[in-house]
Amino acid sequence: MENDKTKFIGRWTGEDEKEIGYLNFDSEGYAYFEVQGQIMGGKEFVQKGKKGNMTYEIDSKTNPIKVDLIVTMLESGKQKKLLCIAKFIDNDTMEFAINFEEKRPIEFDSENSIIFKREK
Q: Which domain holds residue 68?
């Protein structure tokens, strides 16, 4: 099977008019998303005046696939995980559910899930 991360690498655009406009996974292990015009994540971003970064981990042995978006504040080293699930509808379409409450979603529902299309 191909590397877990390879399938995710790229820029994914949200298909529905939810808060997340796009989600990006890069080959270095950084992730970022755009929420209401603000970039959150990547190699370095500033949140409330403090620098942080966002990396990602993928466990594709589970169904749905577990995706952790890990925010690390660079000064304090504090980490916060956004626990997500994903499933591929096809190679370039992914259903993605995110929970900001530190509990991983169990299933996809209209509240938590977004359909993302890979940008070509």
A: 10-118
